[in-house]
Design brief:
The protein is of the alpha/beta class. Helices cover 41% and strands 12% of the residues.
Length: 292
């Protein structure tokens, strides 16, 4: 029961909480007892351009059902007025308290043309990817950081793909994901005098709702996807990165990690948590063993 209450009284914003890693993080913060503002563009009756069925209201319900308090706030994090209104609301409703900000806004999957050199890739889509996945993170932190520095405490987590600067197979995708790592490192320097922590966090092969749909499987039949993609056997659910984020938020010594790029598999060993099925997938070791 202690783990479930480790974030009782804490206030979090998960930007991009509609599905995938964001939903998993929001859910696990709720399980730990936090109040979680679940933001994104997809609401009931008003889905985003991603045209998927998941909504922030569903995520907020999951947070509340898990033991926290979920609050859905429709926010387009590429629109400054939306972002400012979000933080104004949290400032008022929580008396200035913000303990955790998770930047998980992405929206780049339908924009990425894998196997296409950058000069043949849609430039509009490549630039839109930076707007959705980099500019949005910068804008959200711009308005979130003052709430944290005023109280001289808080944690910002940049969700990304990978823990280093190596090329990720597509220039625009790679630029967006590496930018998140550098954002965490650069913000950490500015925030350090105020006692605020900034880190990047990556999952391994994420078994998201969209990925399950891509392979035509469900969470109960996901092993079948290995017939198409053998590496999928090392995939992890959004719960895994959710538990990683919750463990970081509950760690009183988390500031020692400021500026670092962290992983689900590394933190699972340090904080001793598992994925939803009780397993502990280690994508880092698996990738090294398979040469990628």
């Amino acid at each position: 029961m202690e783990a479930r209450q480790s974030l009782r009284g804490k206030v979090a914003i998960v930007a991009g909480a509609t599905r995938g890693a964001g939903r998993g993080i929001a859910a696990m913060l709720g399980e730990a007892g936090a109040t979680v503002y679940c933001t994104g563009r997809s609401t009931r009756g008003n889905l985003s351009s991603m045209n998927r069925s998941e909504t922030i209201e569903e995520t907020a319900h999951i947070v509340t059902a898990g033991g926290g308090r979920g609050i859905a706030v429709r926010t387009d994090h590429t629109v400054e007025s939306d972002v400012k209104a979000l933080f104004d609301r949290v400032q008022e409703e929580q008396n200035g308290q913000l303990d955790l900000l998770v930047n998980d806004v992405w929206g780049g999957d339908p924009l990425t043309e894998w196997g296409t050199p950058f000069w043949r890739h849609s430039l509009d889509n490549g630039l839109l990817m930076q707007q959705r996945a980099v500019h949005s993170h910068m804008m959200t932190s711009y308005y979130g950081a003052p709430m944290m520095t005023a109280r001289k405490q808080g944690l910002i987590i940049e969700i990304t793909d990978g823990i280093d600067y190596r090329y990720r197979g597509n220039l625009y995708y790679s630029l967006a994901k590496i930018a998140a790592i550098h954002l965490a490192a650069a913000m950490a320097v500015d925030l350090k005098p105020y006692g605020v922590t900034s880190v990047a966090l990556t999952p391994g092969f994420l078994r998201s709702e969209a990925m399950l749909d891509h392979f035509g499987v469900t969470e109960s039949t996901w092993h079948e996807a290995a017939k198409i993609e053998p590496h999928f056997l090392m995939s992890e659910t959004p719960v895994y990165i959710g538990r990683a984020a919750a463990a970081l938020a509950a760690d009183p010594q988390v500031h020692e990690k400021t500026g670092q790029a962290l992983s689900t598999w590394g933190l699972s060993e340090e904080y001793d948590f598992t994925d939803a099925d009780g397993n502990r997938p280690h994508w880092g070791r698996y990738a090294a063993e398979n040469g990628f």
